[in-house]
Amino acid sequence: MNLPEASRVAVTAIGANRLRSALTVLGVVIGVMSVVLLVAVGTGARNEVTAGVEDLGSNLLLVVPGSFDFGQAPTLSKFTIDDVEDIQRDLGDQVSVSGNLASGETVRAGSVSAFSSVLGATAEFDEVLNREVVRGEFLTESDVATGRRVAVLGSSAGAALFPDSDPIGKYVTIAGLRFRVLGVFDELGAALGVDRDSQVVVPITAAQRLFGTRRVDTIFVKAPDASQLDPITDRLRAVLSERLDDSEFSVLTQQEILGVAGQILDTLTLVLAAIAGISLLVGGIGVSNIMLVSVQERTREIGLRKALGARTRDITTQFLVEAIVLCGVGGVLGIALGVGLAEAASTFTPLPAAVTGWSVALAFGVSVGVGIAFGTFPARRAGRLDPVVALRYE
Amino acid sequence: MTPPPVVEASDVTRSYTLGKGADAAVVHALRGVSFAVQPAEFVAIIGPSGSGKSTLLHLLGALDRPTTGRLRFFGRPVEEMDDAELARLRNTEIGFVFQQFQLLTRTSALANVALPLVYRGTPKAQRRERAAAALRSVGLGHRLDHRPAQLSGGEQQRVAVARALVSQPRLLLADEPTGNLDTVTGQEIMDLLRGLNREQGVAVVVITHDQEIAALAPRQIRIRDGVLEAAPVTSAGSVASEQPLAPVAAPPERGA
Predict the structure, then answer these.
(1) pLDDT, tens digit (0-9, with 9 covering 90-100), for A266-301
(2) Where are the domains positioned within chain B?
(3) CATH number of the B7-104+169-242 domain
(4) Is B82 on the interface with A (CB under 8 A)?
(5) Residue boundaries of the structural domains of chain A
(6) What are the Cα distances from residue A262, in Å, to A67, A265, A270?
(7) Which of A77, A162, B17, B123 has its CA 20 to 30 A from that of A212?
(8) Are the C-beta atoms of residues A98 and A121 closer than 8 Å to each other?
């Protein structure tokens, strides 16, 4: 019996037992769907992180507390505003330096309130991080030097707090203190899971007073171009080493952040794929089980086919093809469902999901592989049946 | 040179081991059987249940191998053939008709009849053509697309006969072909087999426990307790007695 013939017989057999076939396939459908969907979620997260980091620009350096490594617990910062000034002085005017300190706070304007990330920043913040103020203006050097209580609102924070009026010149209240609104940022969208449009930026000195600390959390350094990153990194290290231990800070390039973030997300994707793989395995066991029942039920048919001239190989092929067709159909349905759900997830939820070609191909390949792996045992059993015994089987 | 017998058994035995280990019991289903079926012969094998006639049929149908003794198909010993060759022999030279019809319920009469050709790699169009011709030859040309459930018992057995014939075998084995049919329909099936034997020259072996059915065969062989016995004179008269049982019987006289 050739392959098209075997496929026809398989489809007939599957069609003859629609409900059972459908339930058997369901296990594979769920398994394949999980693989496609979970890998899409993992990939989506990775894409978002990559985009977010790349958004910062390739000539940006990030100074963070502690050592930045996969699996490292966050360390409390030991940077101060003096470090920011030292760095700026050392690197000169070609290089922009911004120190930041952030905390979640409730921001009020009259009766309206919004929970925002209140970000203390220096006057170079907008230039270093490519932020554009569309209305009003950004913080000045003197605002930062004197710790003046002024604020620049993210686009959605502005819209939320002042739905009907122009916020410029009005006041917002943060932790009981009034801040005058200087300007509003252009819309940016989310990055790294942070809604940057809901941020409220205030002078870092004002933020330190507000939060009761002298700390600076992170320092951004923008080089004139990417080729100067190495010498600037060396200078940064030298400046910071004068006051801090080497283990108390790290200087990171965009590539390094991507490397570590990618490592985390690859592990996440792998874990998700492994969980999905287990459900696919369970689906395969279901197929094996039903194929065994099917072989048992069709013992007489097998006997008859052998009496009519079917060889062991013909019978084995017939049942193996049946298992593969079952799994293949399950694979196609699972992929359709997985892609559909991934699309729905990225449309209707904040969860980013990006379906990748390799995961679809892999899922289909694996489902056919499951058919072969779990169909072989029942198929061989069918092929080995003794025709005399099989024909008499009741 | 005379052609070799279709099938020839020489002192064939077949025993089964039932159970395992200490409880194992050996059943001797056939205890030394010798006889031959010549081309275009019509033979009835009669015996009560448990006589070994089914075992004999399975051996004659190349579904099974003897425990000892020699079994030859067209002069070729089965011990020289592997399982795939036996499958090929069943496919091309042997047709089966079973008491239970053994039709695939999910497919049409036409597809059932075409089934043996599938295992021979015959192209689909040709399969349909030959299956339709076989069904017409058993008088079911108007029932090609009916499923077994839509056919009467007699019609189902005719489909089974057509299936046995579609590969133009030289040996047709019928295992209680009338066992599930009423007397009149059974008679019709026997007439059909007789006609095919006469017109197409296919050797037919009918296994039955029914004396009246056996009496329709020119040659009768009686089996009891795994050995062959001389056939008794039956109600149909002299036919049986004219064909004395011999280890290797000569082909029946034929007015050719």
Answers:
(1) 888 888 888 888 888 888 888 888 889 989 988 999
(2) 7-104+169-242
(3) 3.40.50.300
(4) no
(5) 3-51+261-392, 79-243
(6) 17, 5, 12
(7) A162
(8) yes
